[in-house]
Amino acid sequence: MAYPRGGMALKDLTFRVAKGEFAFLTGHSGAGKSTVLKLIYGELRPSEGEVRVSGFSVGEITKQEVPRLRRRLGIVFQDFGLLQDRTAEENVAFALEVTGARLDSIAAKVTRVLTQVGLASKARSYPTELSGGEQQRVAIARALVNDPPILLADEPTGNLDERATRGVFQLLRDIHAGGTCVVMATHDLDLVRQTTHRVIELREGAVVYDSAETPIASEGIS
Amino acid sequence: MRLVTRETFRSFQRAPLLSALSVTAIAFSLFTVGLFGLVAVNLRESLRGLEDRVEIVAFVLRGTPIETITLATQDITSFPEVATVAYVNEDEALKRAQQEMVEFRDAYRDLRVNPLPASIEVRLKEGFRDASHVAQVAERIEGFPFVDDVRYGREWVERLDRLRNLAGVVGLVIGLAFAGVAIVIIGVTIRMTVLQRAREIRIMRLVGATDGFIRGPFLLDGAAKGLLGGLLAVGISWAAFLVFRRSDVLALQSLVFFETRHIALGLLFGIAIGLGGSLVSVGRHLRNV
User: Fold this and answer.
1) Taking the domain B55-151, which CATH number applies?
2) Residues of B with Cβ-Cβ distance to A67 under 8 angstroms
3) Residue among B2, B3, B203 minimizing CB distance to A81
4) Which chain B residues touch A83 with a CB distance below 8 Å?
5) pTM of structure
6) Domain-by-domain residue ranges, chain B?
7) ipTM over the 0.90 cut-off
């Protein structure tokens, strides 16, 4: 993956994350974690090589197909990415509405997913009325509401205190336990050490460590 | 559609100041076009007033039987360019001259023989009052054997023609320039709206909204602002029109306002600009992010 003005953001990077797996992407700032995630959700295209996500080849899909790829993914960011003028439930419903979901099915789905993240009682609260941890839970609820098989989280605990971090991380683990594949980029090694999940460490755009014992079967992410 | 409408209302609610600014910018841009349009409409009205005076007068040879003239009059009436034909006999011509030329009234009274010839006065339909049509009709009338002479003020009609062409070209150029400036200003204000909602657009894309879906509320937003701006512009133009008409100094009491179809066209123009501006601004934004 090359930078637009030259230089390589990622180089000789090959790994495969299986269906239902939980994988950490770790590394220092600038190691390429976010770039990998952007390649997965089609914000960036690989300048070389192949990125395969849930049946889509990101390097080859047309611009019109990108929304279809993203509906197969849930994406969570460090800055939550919530719309400040909408309540928690409106933020979650928004993700369904913009994908053309049936209007009469939206309310039930929103309630179910807000309950899942433990925020049913704060459905009518605006982001400014919620703590950082709660805002991130709303963002996770929004990412989950379309029942995506893959959840991408880019430093989801980066802006949270320790307690909120634990809560959000546990939520992600619960989601994984429900069968969702979770790829979480983080530089919080304490968090990583708490679990036995797979760890892929990046340095200067290359994989320097992969805890997966099985040899690399094929390129890309499925 | 319900969702698009709701999002459009939300956009107005979320940024009332920016929305008001956009509507005002559109309104004043359209108002400048409207003001120019008012000048153009009134200029055209004045020209039409002048055109109404275009008349072909065919002087009839003395002694021509009235039956011949009646037949010829019917014939001329059937010309496609002709609106009205009037026959003025010698007596009427004299009477009219006495009324119109007061200073010669005594001279006319002392006449033993009426020196004025009878005439046929022909007025043309609107759209045929230009020099070439007038000349063609005059030539045809001159072809009648009983016609002594035909007058229609060739120079005057030709000058009117030039004035009309000049007004048309100048009007088109200035009108287009005003419209161009209006489009740029409106485009900029809509671009501000798009930038203000850049974060929302980004989130919409990340959750899988298609570009077509993202465009929807912006297009309706642009069209609504264009319509509101257009209505406001009509209101301001009406106010300006009243001020001008009431002004004693300018002596413009005979000013006319736009016809309903012109207002409808102006509103459609506002909607089109709003839609076009949104389409371009959102399109550019979606291509670049």
Assistant:
1) 3.30.70.3040
2) 205, 208-210
3) B203
4) 199-200, 203
5) 0.69
6) 2-49+161-288, 55-151
7) no
